[in-house]
Each structure stands twice: as C-alpha cells, then as structure tokens.
Design brief:
- The chain is built from 10 helices and 9 strands.
- Strands 2-1-6-5-7 form a 5-stranded parallel beta sheet. A two-stranded antiparallel ribbon has the order 3-4. Strands 8-9 form a two-stranded antiparallel ribbon.
- The protein has about 250 residues and is α/β, with parallel strands linked by helices.
- Helices cover about 40% and strands about 15% of the residues.
- It has helices at about 15-20, 20-25, 65-75, 95-100, 115-120, 140-150, 160-165, 200-215, 220-225, 235-245, and strands at about 1-5, 30-35, 50, 60, 80-90, 105-110, 125-130, 185, 185-190.
- It folds into 2 domains: about 1-150, Alpha/beta knot (3-Layer(aba) Sandwich), CATH 3.40.1280; about 165-245, Trp Operon Repressor, Chain A (Orthogonal Bundle), CATH 1.10.1270.20.
- Bound molecules: adenine.
C-alpha cells in the first residue's frame, strides 16, 4: 500500500511513520509512506500557502494553487483522496478496514480555518474526522487515520487474529489485561487467570468485556446484543445475566 500525505508541516510526521509498528510495516514493504510539503509547490515568492477568507472571519484558508499543483505533480488524479476535517465522516473500524485494503490513497492536511472548498470539490475529496473536537490541524488526524488503517494490513501485526479480538473490532470493548507480577503492592491479579482452564478464562474475559461495554459504551452493547450470533450456551447465560443487571 502507498499512502501519500500532503501537509504544510512535513516534519511532524518523521518518528510517527518510522518508529514502532508503522515503521516496521514500512521496513517489511507492507506500506510506503510519502510526505509532501505543499509549500514546495507554492508559486508565491514567500512560499505562502494560505490567505484570509472571503466573507471575513478568523484564521487563514489554504489557497487552491499549491494544493492543485502538488496533487497534479504527484499523480493524484482520479485517486482516493481524504481531507482530514472536523466536518467529515467519523473514522470508524469500517473505514479503517476499507482503507487497509486500498492499494493507494492520499491524505490532505489543512490548518487554521481549513482549505478553499474548490480543492475539496475539484479533487472529489472525502472528508474524514477523527472525532467531535477541533485540532489545530489535520496532521495528527492523518497520523491516526494512517495508523488505524496500516495496522490492519495482513502481516503488519504478528498475530493476524489480534485485530478481530480487540476492542471495537469484536463488537465489545476489550477485557482487562494483567501481566507479571502476580501480586504488586498488595494488588492481586484475578485468580481465574491462573487456573489453566481456558474455557473458564474465556468466559471471565467475555463477562468482563460485556460489563465494561455495557457501562462505558451502551451504544456498542446494544448493537452487540441485537446482532450476537453463534454464542455458546455458557456465553449466552452470561449475556442474559449481564442484561438483567442495572
Ligand atoms: N482537523 C481539525 N480537527 C480535526 C478532526 N477532529 N478530525 C480530522 N481532522 C481535523
């Protein structure tokens, strides 16, 4: 997969794309990141990429010229281009999964008051938000999007089943995790995790996930109860009990 990011602040991306799991994915050839500095395409003598908004208002708006020229130069015509924006469709697991299957896509990061609407319209951009809050720019959002998509590329995580079991992807929030030592400053790990009985351990984890999801994300819990299929008798019993609790 190839992900090309267009930004006025390319230095923000360095370690995020080269370290840890994203960096390893790039080393393995699963993904190629390219970060393009929009400023390099500005014909303005001060390499300006934004200007004040028509109609008044705060902040600065990205001008069409540097963005159009950058997009043309990197061959983005007809390709999937995402514009990071708090006005966009919310990033979720469906979109992350869909993007993880793309051969190539582009991400445009805006700053201040956003970008001239003609950039979005003429390049048929898809606006994506990472949450109902406003960031100072699209760069952090682009990193979130890239991370969420790349980790789902087969071969990126050491255990290919991992994404299916974890929070949200399974439809439930992930159960509580513990590691060594067994006791720390008087705090104990739940006994069931040591009994070696995988069925009981699984049921404990399932119940823990259900309770957590019901409390923190009633929306996900409701969806899970409506669509839950293929539960074992024991799992169903636990679900029924959790459903009866307040
Ligand atoms: N740019 C500024 N805020 C944003 C958000 N919440 N999501 C995506 N891009 C943004």
């Amino acid at each position: 997969m190839k992900i090309t990011i267009l930004t006025q602040f390319p230095d923000m991306f360095g370690p995020v794309l080269s370290e840890s799991i994203l960096g390893r994915a790039a080393d393995k050839g699963l993904v190629e990141f390219k970060v393009i500095n929009i400023r390099d395409y500005s014909v303005d003598k001060h390499r300006k990429t934004d200007d004040t908004p028509f109609g008044g208002g705060f902040g600065m708006v990205m001008t069409p010229q540097p963005a159009f020229d950058a997009l043309k130069a990197i061959g983005a015509e007809g390709k999937r281009i995402i514009y990071m924006s708090p006005r966009g469709k919310l990033l979720d697991k469906q979109l992350a999964t869909e993007l993880s299957r793309e051969e190539e896509f582009f991400i445009l990061c805006g700053h201040y008051e956003g970008v001239d609407q003609r950039i979005i319209d003429a390049w048929n951009m898809e606006e994506v938000s990472i949450g109902d809050y406003v960031l100072t720019g699209g760069e952090l959002a682009a990193m979130v999007l890239a991370d969420a998509a790349v980790r789902l590329i087969p071969g990126c995580l050491s255990d290919p089943e991992a994404p299916l079991q974890e929070s949200v992807y399974s439809g439930l929030l992930e159960y509580d995790q513990y590691t060594k030592p067994r006791e720390y400053e008087g705090l104990e790990v739940p006994e069931v995790l040591f009994n070696g009985n995988h069925r009981l351990i699984h049921l404990w984890q399932f119940e823990n996930s259900l309770r957590l999801t019901k409390k923190r994300r009633p929306d996900l819990f409701e969806k899970f109860t409506e669509t839950a299929e293929g539960l074992t008798k024991d799992e169903k019993k636990i679900l029924d009990a959790v459903l009866l609790e307040y």
